[in-house]
Amino acid sequence: MVGAALKCALVYFVFVYLDDRWLGWQTITRPIVVAPITGLLLGDFKTGIIMGASLESIFMGISAIGGAVPADATSASIIAVAFTILNGASQEAGLAIAMPIGAVMSSFGALEMALVAAPLVPYWEKLAQEDMNKFCVQNYIFSAVYQLIPAAVMFIAVAYGVEGLNNFLNILPGWVMTGLNAASGMMTAIGFAILTSMIWDAEVGIFFFVGYVLAAYLHLDTLAIAILAVAVAITMFFNNKKLIDLKSELSAKGVENKGEEDFF
Amino acid sequence: MATNTYTPEEKAILRKIFFRSHRCFMMFSMAKMEANCFTMCMQPVIESLYPDDREEQGKSYLRHQAFFNTHTNPFTFIAGLTYAMEKERKAGKVDEATIDNVKAALMGPTAGMFDSFWFNAVRVISAGIAIGLCSQGNFLGTILFVLLYGVTQSVAKWYLLQAGYNLGTSFIDTVFNSGLVSVLTKCASVVGLTMVGAMTANMVNVPLNWVINTTGKEGGEVVVGNILNSIFPGLLGVILLFVLVGLIKKGYRPTQLIAGIFVLALVGALLGIF
Description:
Structural class of chain B: mainly alpha
Strand content of chain B: under 5%
Number of domains of chain B: 2
Number of strands of chain B: 2
Number of helices of chain B: 10
Radius of gyration of chain B: 23 Å
Largest interface: A-B, 104 and 116 residues
Oligomer: heterodimer
Distance between the termini of chain A: 92 Å
Order of helices and strands of chain A: HHHHHHHHHHH
Strand order of the largest sheet of chain B: 1-2
Order of helices and strands of chain B: HHHHHHHEEHHH
Number of domains of chain A: 2
Radius of gyration of chain A: 28 Å
Number of helices of chain A: 11
Distance between the termini of chain B: 52 Å
Strand content of chain A: under 5%
Number of strands of chain A: 0
Shape of chain A: elongated
Largest sheet of chain B: 2 strands, antiparallel
């Protein structure tokens, strides 16, 4: 079991690191890719391919929107294939074992995002200003280390059972998990606050609330809101253009208009 | 595509941005999302524009460390456009605020458009073909899936990058020659701020779960979150955002803000507010 667990963790690590960090395709972490590869490594390629097809149909409907995924498709698929091949179990039984592990992996991912990724943000800001080459290299290394943690969690889950991990998550008082999840949600406010303070313009600042109201009250899509905003911007652009044209016209005739200026 | 009109230097930089743009989720965090990759994509641009000016390089990188998030394909379109704008900034034609505004204005709508195109159309079609082959035990299905859904993204990225760069160069020149840059800056602010407001409504969330029971009887509960939301939807999120903006203007560092959020969330959870 330990050998198989190691293979599963390896497939998980390699494919997630490669896709998430280097390709950005969100393609080779899909069940239809990792399931055949797991099958190949565990000596039953054909079962892997066939399971890949059914796992892909199951997980296709579930996509990560807003970072909340019920079960991590990649790890759940790898484990489902491993259990089916190693225990000669049915696909359904394999999936029944895999789903809880996928759910644990998903919680660990959220935990890591809150506890590791967010606190590193100021460090990246500092490093970007000091040395960009170091910034790049450290991003690659940190990403690999970052990905090793869930791979290790997955190894433990497959080799020694998911109960231990669930017990670990249960040792933490409920409020700690709630608090960390709340913190993770509010982290986005920091990013938006920095962005807002960068682009704030007192003259047109009220448009922040126009956008807010269109989204919060009217639930419009961002594209619809963008079209409205662009319409306002274009109107503004041409009004100002007329004003500038008028100004330059006046200043061209400036000499003749001298007398009139006193009148106004 | 006017591929062959680029100078060798432009070509080299575009190629570097293309490869780097694949590292979209490098050290992804809730606070900055894809900012690290965007900064990486801008390195070849900034280095070629300010080869000896360490201070200006640092300042530019810090600007590109701002929150950034979109689908991985329009990512390159915005990066190409930003490359053009950074060049024009050096020529004195646009300012920093316009660059930040254009990035902020484009990320929301492009994410929506491309997410639904790739996730709901291309991926479903590719997976449909692949599932059919794989269910018969044919590995060709997997290979086709990677080709149809993975490799096509890289192809799209390359053309979107060029489209962004071409648009940026021609558009900015036209506007600059007409002498309307200051007007354009204002208009960019309007769109940028509107989109940031809309994204705040969609993405910033204070998960309040606070119930007060004043009477001590069934049915006497007061759900604080509902009351606040009935005054103004997402009121706490907006307050949190502007408190943070105020703190940033006062010179507080992101480290302090992140620590503050952790303390606030944990204390809140302990007290049962969240």
